[in-house]
Amino acid sequence: MASDPDGTQGAGPSVVAIIAERIRMTEGQLYTAVIALAVALLLALTTIPSAHKLANPASPTPPAPAPSPAVSR
Amino acid sequence: MIGPFAIRFDVVAIGAMAGLGYAILASGLVLVYRASRVINLAHGQVGAFCATLFAVLVDDWKVPYAVALPLAIVAGAAVGWLIERGLVRPLVQRSHLAVLVATIGVTDLLLVAAAKLPSVTGKNNQFPTPFNATVTIHDLVLHGEHFALLIFGPVVLVLFTVFMARSRYGLAIRGVADNREAAELAGIPAPTVSSIVWMLAGGLAAIAAILTVPLTGATQVSVSATGTALGPALLLRALAAGLAGRMTKLPATLGAGISIGVVQSVLYASYPSSLGITDMVLFVFVVAMLLLRSRGHVDAGDALTFGKDPVSLAAHIRNHPTVRLVRRGSIAAAMIVVIVLPLAVTSSSRLYLLSLVPIYAIIGISIVILTGWAGQLSLCQMAFVGIGAMGTAALNARGVPFGAAVGDATVVGILIAVIVGAPALRLRGLFLTVTSLGFAVAASSYLLNLKVFSSSDIGVAEVTPGKLGPINLNSFRVDFYACAVCLLVAVLIARRIRTTGFGRSLIAVEGNEDSATAMTVSPAVAKIAAFAVAGGMATFAGGLFAAVSRTFETTSFAPEQSLQLLAMTVVGGIGSIGGAVLGAIYIVGLPDILGNSVTVQLAVSGIGLLVILRLEPTGLIGVWERLRDFVVPRLLAIPADTDDQSVATVQTAPTVIVQQGRGDSTKVTPPEVAGAITALAVRDVVVNIGGRRILSGVDLDVRDGEVVGLIGCNGAGKSTLVNAISGFIPASGSVELFGDRIGDLPALDRARLGLGRSFQSAVLFPRLTSRECLQVALASRRRAEVIPSMLALPPSVRIEGRIRREAEEILELLALGPHGDTRIGNLSTGTRRIVEFGCMLVARPRVLLLDEPMAGIAQRESEAFGLMLMGVRREIGAAMLVIEHDVPLISEISDRLYCLEAGAVIAEGDPAAIRSNPAVIASYLGTDERAIQRSRAIPGKRRKSQVHHG
Fold first, then answer.
1. B 752-791 residues inside an 8 A Cβ radius of A
2. Window B:532-561, CB contacts with A under 8 Å
3. What is the value of ipTM here, to two decimals?
4. 3-class secondary structure for B360-411?
5. Which one is predicted more confidently, B453 or B688?
6. Which residues does B845 contact at the CB level (< 8 Å), separation at least 6?
7. Least confident among A3-12, A33-42, B59-68, B736-745
8. pTM (2 decimals)?
9. How confident is the model at residue B540 (pLDDT cuts 50, 70, 90)?
10. How far is B233 from B106, CA to CA, in rounded Å?
11. Any chain A CB within 8 A of the CB of B589?
């Protein structure tokens, strides 16, 4: 059986692995945290500029012409 | 008024009367659940159908009320009988989930049947009542319908209670509900009792509907055509009442039903402008009851599987060059169709329909992950779609870019899924079904009606998709391409889930929660993660739905739609991603061909569902696979078999392990001297089950590296002791693992600390292959996280690669190579045992508890198993506690033996001393001299007469 616990035999530990070890997380947890932060940041950056409208939805965008779908669900 | 609530005599009285109706409905639901372990989702609709029939009889055919009422009740009983004979009996052996889903199909068909009753269409009469009198008591005004309920309601309940308590049929029903096998042994014909139960429930549903519908002010048409009068909202009230009575206790159910009616009435009177607040309160009530429920409670009927999976092509066919070429060609052809088809379609409505297919397919994939793989039934996927559509529309209306709006809504959907799912998913059983129905109803009537668009509009909004990244979503054709790309991403994510540790742990938990826990998989975390992923996917699909529809309307997300989505996925094939896509094409395409009315949609989903459940449980994808398996081998002229049924034998399989463990070629000997450290210390363990004391103060020690045998008659408490030590049942006393107190920890934490165990049945995970089973065990050492697995990020790829390599090594080591792709459910007990040993080998526990590891295998293979056991022990160096009835074998492999009798240790010592201990001989070995001689026989000769008690 393979004895290499992380499958990194033959190569030095990656930068991510070193950082993860420093902050006592697994690499997977670190990736998860980074992705979650990135998504949160991206959504915040695209949503917050409209924040003043969120509180006062007085003038919604004019609607596009509505289709006449055959299925109404 | 009392505080903010309108608690008045008239309000409470009217509520209590409505509650009486709920109580009658709930008693039928509970009755069916107790006898069949199935939540009958068609229960309310059986009542609605009978109520419609009743109205037609009285209004159109002028049948007197007193005659029409029994006729409608008989009709209800007949429908119940038909459901039981046509669906329950053939499907219940397969799984309770199959029956539950079948009742959704019945609901659809009953809706269609009620709408097609003669003279219903166009009628708008008030629902018939027996009296025309009106009586006023203070503010309370009573009409005929109230008198009917006050007279017939209590009579029905009293008759029902007396029937259940006093009649021999009632006794038989209770007997079958408590213990079907024991009841059958006592001569009670369980199938007949089941028929009686379903007929009774049908009759009760009919009475409840006929008495309750007039209170709602419903007309013939509103009851028959839409089903709203007795749809999911009423079912939720009955289910909540049933849950309050733990789906077993009728008096509590009746009390809860009346209480729900009163609370509902008070809330209506107190907040007349707040739509759906009662549904929201009921949902919170259901969640609160689940939170109060003990985590250790095991609910019967928790086998949430359809019992049959799509079959992969055999490896040698799958890897045939021609097959690979055809597969790639098919994918290319499908992509060309996806690209070209919208160019050939010019009609906006057709393009809209085309766009719905990938959206529905994404929702279907979410159901495949949750129900097909994780075995959890959700009835609220359309509510998540609604939340996605509402969130997207609300944010988009405020100027948030469409892509960000969909992203925001998806994140909210995931969070809501965790909040909604966690209380139910920490328990076993059908609780998510009830919670999700509650959420579907509450979302439809309350959440989706919140004023989030503007100060005036409720439940309606326009959506302007604008741009999604670089793509300008300004035409239906572009919409379709965008949705198709999203579907492709969803398919890739789902494929990653299925082929990595997350997917394997979902299927492991679905198949066998206890074994999964023993392999350090957390069932609660796995199920909640599955619900979150499924909720996120459905919410994302909701954002797309809002974009494609250009509008958001609350009415598009009724709870009934969730049932249709589930039906769609079952028809396509709930176990596979391709099935979800096929189901979407079926549910969108077929009504378009046959005529796009609600009736056609219901008939298509209902009939399709029932036909598929009866004939091909794997769905349309299963039909395709059968066809493929028939045609391909013949075209290629190669043999078809490989997911074969052939059986690895214990004597041939574990060659290396056996050789490693072999002291000499014939005798099984303990390989090492036990250490001085106590690996497992058990002190004063007491277990009480159902008022009976099963274990009374057991003390036991296993030293590091030691093999300790546990013997005793059946019923002595051996398995209970192992369950108590490993944390699978509650026990008092102390358990220490290498000096750490673990007695208060749950089973999962004990497993993670290195306390491994096997189970007597060796069921493992029937839907996983041998290779995947080993991979589940391997993941106990290093598990890839969910998000890196879904996105194929480096840690997941690396860990999965390592797990794959090690699984191959173990398969080779155990000579299981030919069975690597065979599902565990298709293996013999002996071969499953080998896989189980492999799992123990790779999980490397510090202490191993083995519950009859040789049970169910041929006697001639026991010898090899003893050798293999020693090989496993030598390999992992674990201390072992082994339950075994084969006294000669356990004596040979053990350093010491304990003998249990009636939950207490009666002897402990080295095997020779135990075999001659008078108390052990009297209790277990017997006083027959031949039996004692057998237990002293030498290994090569003793096979002729094995000691086997109990």
1. 781-788, 791
2. 549-551, 556, 561
3. 0.71
4. HHHHHHHHHHHHHHCCCCCCCHHHHHHHHHHHHHHHHHCCCCHHHHHHHHHH
5. B688
6. B751, B754, B755, B756, B876, B878
7. A3-12
8. 0.85
9. very high
10. 17
11. no
